[in-house]
Amino acid sequence: MxxxxxxxxxxxxxxxxxxxxxxxxxxxxxAVMALSARFVGGGTLDPVHGQHLLALLSEDPARLAGLxxxxxxxxxxxxxxxxxxxxxxxxxxxLTFWYLGLIDDRPVDNREARFFSLVSWQALPYxxxxxxxxxxxxxxxxxxxxGA
Length: 148
Hints:
Order of helices and strands: EEHHHHHEEHH
Low-confidence stretches: 1-24
Strand content: 5-15%
Distance between the termini: 53 Å
Strand order of the largest sheet: 1-2
Structural class: mainly alpha
Radius of gyration: 19 Å
Number of strands: 4
Number of domains: 1
């Protein structure tokens, strides 16, 4: 399917062709941050964490190829569901990194230090301390037991 003048095959071929060039090895943190902002949709994203995300994605050649495919200008107009598999995996990696602090279902290094800067905590309408029981609303009530 062709979207905005480029098919998903075109994006895949362009990313593969660029992978052998020296400039393709230099993906900027700014590019990863812009891509992250596009998919996360809000919140404050720390560039230090973005640098960590770039390093994690760069460790795996398949993820690096997926990242390059996402950074292709033609990919901006392609719905995520129609992106090549590697690019869709990187979208998932970006979201789980920023929302949960995970890559491959494993916590990222130093997750405890960056935990409260995760986007999921920024979405809360009030500040919370997870080690303190909430003494109001449904948090203060024991769960109802149904006949079992």
